[in-house]
Amino acid sequence: MLLGCRWVLDTLGAPIYDALIDRSGLHIGAPLCFIVGIMAMLLLAMNNNLATLSASIIIFFVCGTTLTTVISAEASHRGSRVFARYATAADLGALFGPVIGWSVYEFLNVPDLAFILGALLYTIGLLAALIAFRRPSTLGAHKE
């Protein structure tokens, strides 16, 4: 049921999420989605209540869809080289993400650790996005 919700959220929500990020701006909206996604992952690790788990998963799905939509659009605006790097990184994430999550669970048998690791990877994504999409420096604009 939750995966079905994800596809509905992806299909119907992506244009809405993109419009909201356009209004708030990439430099505010994308980090906010990363931070909310990190909090949702940590909440998944700390809670066993089914309603809270379901809500956290749905919130995480919304953040993921929003980030995919916005970051891919920004990467495409920056040219084919940047978009190619983005596409490669997304493919590697799709390849290794499930392998890492299931391996943690299989070998360490600590289900919550997979969520904590997911939050850590989202934190790395946040830092990478902040670096990649930082605003142009205004230091040189005030030269006299």
What's the helix and strand layout?
Blueprint lengths: L1 H23 L1 H21 L3 H28 L2 H29 L2 H22 L12
Helix pairs in contact: 1-2, 1-3, 2-3, 2-5, 3-4, 4-5
Keywords for this structure?
144 residues, mainly alpha, 5 helices, globular
Overview of the structural elements:
Helix content is 85%, strand content 0%. It has 144 residues and is mainly α. The chain has one domain (2-132). α2 (26-46) runs antiparallel to α3 (50-77). The N and C termini lie far apart (62 Å).
SSE order in H/E notation? HHHHH
Q: Helix tally?
A: 5
Q: Fraction of residues in helices?
A: over 70%
Give the strand tally.
Answer: 0
> Using only CA atoms, what is the Rg?
17 Å
| SS class | mainly alpha
Largest sheet entry: none
> What oligomerization state is this entry in?
single chain
Mean pLDDT: 85
What's the shape? Answer: globular
Strand content: under 5%
**N-to-C terminal Cα separation, in Å?**
62 Å
Low-confidence spans: none
Structurally, the number of domains stands at 1
